[in-house]
Amino acid sequence: MTHYERILLTGAAGRLGTELRKSLAPLARTIRLAARSGFDDLAANEEQAIFDLADMDAAIEATRDCDAIVHFGGSSLEASWQTILNANISGSYNIYEGARKNGVRRVVYASSVHAIGYHEVDAHIGVDAPVRPDSLYGVSKNFVESLSRLYWDKFGIESVCLRIFSSFPEPTDRRMLWSYLSFADCCRLVEASLTAPRVGHTISFGMSDNRIKTVDNSGANHLGYTARDSSEPFRAAIEAKTAVPDPNAAATKYLGGWFCELGHPDDAE
Question: Could you say which of 96, 137, 225, 254 is catalytic?
Answer without folding.
Answer: 137
